[in-house]
């Protein structure tokens, strides 16, 4: 079962958009828990996290993924930024990945040409860096880096509310 670790820099509507698309994953039994890491200290993010049953904590942006992983309940994590909206076909793609290669990191890539190109350049510059869109073992996040190159999944995500 996955835990979503959502890095939230203080924009409540973006966090709400991300939670809205995660609800079907909870209903399907793929997502069991969420951790909201508030990197801006916004009280409205705490209220959203509490209303959804997510764990809430404050941390700096640089340590957000690791701090969220420390509080995660699942052995596999989905790293998201507030405003990340996985497309409707993301659940089967993630489920298939977790069945076939649960220990290998995977990426829900950004959709759209410009965003996809920016993401590809960032990955080429730092291929083992933690980033939004990754699905990976909790131990990799606690270690602070990927042990292998992430496999790009066919499903994509978009960024909303920014």
From TrEMBL:
Source species: Bosea minatitlanensis
Keyword annotations of the record: Glycosyltransferase, Transferase
Domain of life: Bacteria
Cited InterPro entries: Glyco_trans_2-like, Nucleotide-diphossugar_trans
Domain Glycosyltransferase 2-like: 35-94
Pfam families in the record: Glycos_transf_2
EC number: 2.4.-.-
Claim: Transferase is one of the keywords in the record: yes
Protein name (database record): Glycosyltransferase family A protein
GO terms of molecular function: glycosyltransferase activity
